[in-house]
Amino acid sequence: MDASAIVAAIAAAITLAALYFTRRQVKTAEEQTAIQRGMYKDAAQPYVWADIRPHAQHASFMMLILKNEGPTVATDVSLKINPGLPSEWARNEDHEKFASMRCFDSLPPGRMMQWNLGLPQDLLPSPDTPGNGDGRFKISISFRGPNGTKTTLSYSINLSEYRWVAKTTPGTPMTIAKSVDDATKTLSKAINNVAIQLSE
What CATH number does residue 157 fall under? Predict the structure, then answer.
């Protein structure tokens, strides 16, 4: 084999190697683009959840909460709880109407809907109270995002886990006193600044 043939063979090998790596780079770039598109699509979807938990400010009440944490509107929202909530819950509500309030045309971003179910001692299962159930419920939520795709989430909750949880609320006398003290200091500084400006 003469020198020109060897050079041609080497050039062909280099070309094939370059073509191979170019195709791999293109494939990798396409995969990265698909991943980024998927992440953008997921980030633009609503995220609707439901839970039965103590009230944020009044831990003495148990609430059914439905909220859209996502950045876009959720439509065709459906909430199912299995087994159904006991009829003695939400005594102050018409239970038939309460039970039917599980479908919603839409939930805008940040909207939270709450229903007062009753006092923890009446709702939380107790091993000493027969027929009170074990506090386990399966929650299923379905909704549509801006692109019309239907999302379904299913998960289980266990209310008996709340039995030994401390009942605490955000505000305490100490934090309230600190807030008043901080507000007083801020107001005093503002008054002093105004007095200085008026005296100049």
Answer: 2.60.40
